[in-house]
Amino acid sequence: MINPPIDSIVCGDCLELLRGVPDNSIDMVFADPPFNLKKGYRSCKDDLSLQEYLRWCEKWIVEMVRVTKPSGSIFVHNIPKWLIHYSGFLNNYADFKHWISWDAPSSPMGKSLQPSHYGILYYAKCAKQLKFHEVRYPHKRDRKSGFLLKDYGGKKSMLHPFGPLVSDVWTDIHRVKHNKYRDEHPCQLPIHLLERLILMSTDEGDVVLDPFSGTGTTAIAAKRLGRHYLGFELDAVYAEVSKQKLVEEDAASKLGGCWVSFYLKKVVTLRDMDWECLQDFFFLPDAVGKIDSAPITLKSNYLQ
Fold this sequence. Notes:
Elements: E1 8-11, H1 14-18, E2 26-31, H2 50-67, E3 68-78, H3 80-90, E4 95-103, E5 117-124, E6 135-136, E7 169-170, H4 191-201, E8 207-210, H5 217-224, E9 228-233, H6 236-247, E10 254-255, E11 258-259, E12 261-263, E13 266-271, H7 275-278, E14 282-283, E15 297-298
Parallel strand pairs: 1-9, 2-3, 2-8, 4-7, 8-9
Antiparallel strand pairs: 3-5, 4-5, 6-13, 10-11, 12-13, 14-15
Helix pairs in contact: 2-3, 4-5
């Protein structure tokens, strides 16, 4: 029995709440902790000393690994400065899989290379037992002509109609920048970023935990995809925003019997194993070679 119960957002300190979660009970854990860069979180001091911050980080990392099932996945999002420390902790308790580079340019800082990505550490509780699904994303195309951006050297006839398998460099998902799409939170992630991670590492009915829930992005993504969720959030206002948003969400992000991730009425992530069932929901070119100039489109009656 998980206490607090699944499908809930609980206000409180993540270390205290994690202690109530049994060993080996969670299918996927995602953490986007404070950056310790003096960001304007409502209830969190974001300017700890280096050693104080790292001691705290190791505590919740150890707890995250403990509660994850042997087949489960552990994801931690942050800037490279902190991820190198997190990986040092995680290497003692879990198996490294990938450093996912999420393309997200920021302003030049002077006397340094321009920061252009966030990282997501991907660890397995036990590599030999890891649950993992290959996922695909749409082919990249020129905005004006619609032609493929990449030259496949005469092998375009061999391309998958929907798109390539996702690598460890993600350039197709962008930060939430416009205020009308943002909550009053300094570090809000796009929901379809979390949906990709969830599709990749879980199945319907699995449990997804976020110990730094913020305004509920991870929980919303999990609910949309038919997974259970559990979120811990220190700030009562953020927790309440999450609860209100979750009331309005349904487990409906699917085509037929397959779960997919939508963004701007387009499918942006699907599981490779589901393609045989999903292809009937798209208009496909009458010849594979036409993929170069004719992107597949979702049939109008299936648009979200």
